Amino acid sequence: MPAPLILAAAAAACIASVHDGDTFRTCAGERIRIANIDAPELPGSPKCTEHRPRAWCDYDLGYRSRDALSALIATGPVRIDRSGRDRYGRTLATVTVNGRDAGEYLIARGLARRW
Asked: What pTM did the predictor assign?
């Protein structure tokens, strides 16, 4: 498992791992789901094996989305503005890195869509 990305700043979040293009885990174990976006699924997602009509099962793009989010997070302080929880218990949040909205960053690159 890769070492946690520890970011230096008083209000910055420590990010332990990036699951996919719209979900990551903090060093404290909190699962964060970037609000208002949907990124492609990765292999093994039950959404794709159950053939849910709204599932986005482009695995190559899913890997690219995950890697882009991971690279963005590594560039600077991460701010998490929490707004609630989703049905899976993840924290919904607007996430910014160096003042850049992570969701908008992924959408602009075709690696996520508005939800």
From this structure: 0.86
Q: Compute the distance between CA of residue 106 and CA of residue 111 in angstroms, rounded to an integer.
A: 5
pLDDT, tens digit (0-9, with 9 covering 90-100), for 43-94: 999 889 877 777 899 999 999 999 999 999 999 999 999 999 999 999 999 9
Residue ranges making up the domain that contains 53: 15-114
The 10 Å CB-count burial string (b at 16+, else e) for 33-70 is: bbbbbbbbbbeebeebeeeeeebbbeeebbebbbebbb
d(CA 41, CA 49): 11
SS (H, E, C) 9-22: CCCCCCEEEEEECC
Q: CA of 86: how far to CAs of 18, 36, 92, in Å?
A: 18, 11, 6
Asked if the structure places residue 8 within a domain, the reply is: no
Look at residue 64 and tell me if it is in a domain: yes
37 falls within a domain: yes
Tokens representing residue 83 in the block: 């707004």
